[in-house]
From TrEMBL:
Pfam families according to UniProt: adh_short, adh_short_C2
Regions crossing the membrane: none
Top-level taxon: Bacteria
Molecular function as annotated in GO: oxidoreductase activity
Organism for this UniProt entry: Pseudomonas taetrolens
Lineage: Bacteria, Pseudomonadati, Pseudomonadota, Gammaproteobacteria, Pseudomonadales
UniProt keyword terms in alphabetical order: Oxidoreductase
Record's protein name: 3-alpha-hydroxysteroid dehydrogenase
UniProt entry tagged with the keyword Oxidoreductase: yes
Family: Belongs to the short-chain dehydrogenases/reductases (SDR) family.
Length: 255
């Protein structure tokens, strides 16, 4: 039975990933702030270390899969918290669990990014350079100083996508696949909070994908399950948009 760790397992996309992978026969080690096999706060270095230690304990040091779903949206209490969870809460889980994955059977890891990663200008923000350099203190300060949560969100997703892609190259030599799924709008508590927000509600509600609706968490989870399965054995370092056509609508000539 494959053993897969899933962060953000208690809600939304992460919960749907757990359900689909369980149905496919995986044993799941969920990681979240509550209602999970591993209770940990991925916003701090100590919390991430505790999460890694508990996953290693519960898995016996051998993992077949890792899916990083935990994340905060534009209504997060601060831009710094958003970066801490969305970037470092992913990169440090990947780093902490790579040796366990290397011992697994047909190991595969996956990061939930976002179409927001392609937001114009996000790649040019100084906080991205700080994120990719692993400078948590500087990136968090830059994000709070900017005071624009939607830019911090786009930067966190752009940087975490770059980080997954650059890790995927050396990981391939260890036999570990690592991909990114970039959802568009998906009906979860995170998305609902953005729609209810006075600053962002109107634009989020009006930005509708060509398919004419937001996605359901299960529609993301099915693609994640495919990428984590041996059916996707030659797919690594890829960014798969699961967005109802949003990316094609905005950037038809970039891919
Ligand atoms: N819903 C969307 O429209 C959408 C679109 C693109 C990308 N995403 C991404 O999908 C992922 C899942 O989001 P969702 O929409 O399912 O949201 P959600 O709020 O339903 O679930 C997020 C989960 O992450 C957990 N989490 C947050 N902070 C944490 C912390 N400090 N430590 C541990 N766990 C923490 C939460 O407790 C929650 O269970 C996120 O990375 C999000 O950025 C969502």
């Amino acid at each position: 039975m494959p053993v897969t760790a899933v962060s953000g397992s208690a809600s939304g996309i992460g919960a749907a990933v757990c359900a689909v992978l369980r149905a496919a026969g995986h044993r799941i080690i969920g990681i979240d702030r509550a209602n999970a096999e591993v209770i940990a706060d991925l916003s701090s270095a100590e919390g991430r270390q505790a999460a890694v230690a508990q996953v290693l304990e519960q898995s016996g040091g051998v993992l077949d899969g890792l899916v990083c779903c935990a994340g905060l949206g534009v209504t997060a209490p601060s831009s710094s918290l958003l970066l801490a969870v969305n970037y470092f809460g992913v990169s440090q889980l990947l780093d902490g669990l790579v040796d366990a994955l290397a011992k697994g059977e047909n190991p595969a890891a996956l990061v939930i990014g976002s179409v927001a990663a392609t937001q114009p200008g996000a790649d040019q923000q100084p906080m991205v350079e700080a994120l990719l350099a692993g400078d948590e203190a500087r990136s968090l300060t830059l994000a709070n100083d900017l005071g624009q949560p939607h830019v911090a969100y786009a930067c966190s997703k752009y940087a975490v996508t770059c980080e997954a892609r650059r890790k995927s190259v050396p990981w391939a030599a260890q036999g570990i696949r690592l991909n990114v799924v970039a959802p568009g709008a998906v009906e979860t508590p995170l998305h609902q909070a953005a729609k209810d927000d006075a600053r962002y509600g109107k634009s989020v509600s009006e930005f509708v994908a060509p398919l004419g609706r937001a996605g359901h968490p299960e529609e993301i989870a099915q693609v994640v399950a495919f990428l984590q399965s041996s059916q996707a054995s030659f797919v690594t370092g890829s960014v798969i948009f699961v967005d109802g056509g949003m990316d094609a609508m905005v950037r038809a000539q970039r891919f």
